[in-house]
Write a structure and sequence with these properties.
Blueprint (H helix, E strand, L loop, with lengths): L1 H9 L4 H29 L3 H32 L4 H29 L4 E2 L7 H4 L10 E4 L7 E8 L2 E8 L2 E3 L5 E4 L7 E5 L2 E6 L2 E7 L13
Antiparallel strand pairs: 1-5, 2-3, 2-9, 3-4, 4-5, 4-6, 7-8, 8-9
Helix pairs in contact: 1-3, 2-3, 3-4
């Protein structure tokens, strides 16, 4: 394995192998696998675990990106075929590096924001949820009533709701998980009836249910 990594780093492998196998195929595979890991942790309610594993995966993938990009650059330099493939490969390296730098900057900005509320979780959110007259969608919505995670939807004021993911490990602070919304008229939400709505996510729309309606609403809070 060490010799393989060394050959990749030195650019001793062929350009097609380095670019397509170690570059395209491996990076896509790693990206998909890391998404499944993070999503699995998120749905299990391990909010702190998501952050830690996310950092570990980001560092590992960053190291791999550097290895592959250097390998492609050097392999292109050793390539004896048509010059167009040499320049094309190095152009991709430059563009990919720029995109990753921009991604790291944005990720750093997002990670600097404290989104975790340890005082609330799926275990106590029903008792802590804010409700108000004129906000019929306030409550803790789940994909299945047996789940220990879901979406806490609360009135924010001015006809808007905050939507936060909650699991056993804690909840996102209001306004940090999804943008505030009126729900009605928002294309990301489809209200089916008083206890069922569909919410659009990365995998399309998913049905959520209001399994236990919240306590009687407080007076109207419109700002």
């Amino acid at each position: 394995m060490a010799e393989l990594i060394a050959k990749l780093w030195r650019g001793d492998q062929s350009l097609p192998m380095t670019f397509w196998v170690w570059g395209v195929v491996a990076i896509i595979g790693m990206s998909v696998a890391s998404q499944f890991v993070v999503m699995g942790l998120a749905f299990s309610g391990l909010v702190k675990g998501v952050l830690f594993i996310g950092i570990v995966l980001a560092v590992a993938m960053l190291g791999y990106f550097v290895l592959v990009l250097v390998g492609i650059w050097r392999s292109a330099g050793n390539y004896s075929g048509p010059l167009v493939w040499k320049f094309a490969a190095r152009t991709v390296v430059v563009l990919f590096a720029m995109l990753n730098i921009a991604g790291l900057v944005l990720a750093g900005m997002e990670m600097s924001v404290d989104t975790h509320d340890s005082t609330r979780s799926s275990r106590n959110i029903d008792a802590q949820l804010k409700t108000a007259v004129g906000y019929p969608y306030a409550g803790f919505w789940k994909r299945s009533c047996s789940d220990n995670f879901g979406l806490a939807i609360e009135p924010e004021g001015a006809g808007l709701y905050t939507v936060s993911f909650c699991g056993p490990g804690g909840c996102f602070k209001p306004g940090t998980y999804r943008p505030s919304t009126k729900i009605d008229g928002d294309p990301l939400y489809k209200v089916i009836d008083a206890t069922t709505m569909e919410v659009e996510g990365k995998d399309g729309f998913s049905a959520y249910h209001l399994c236990s309606p919240p306590a009687a609403p407080t007076p109207k809070i419109d700002k």
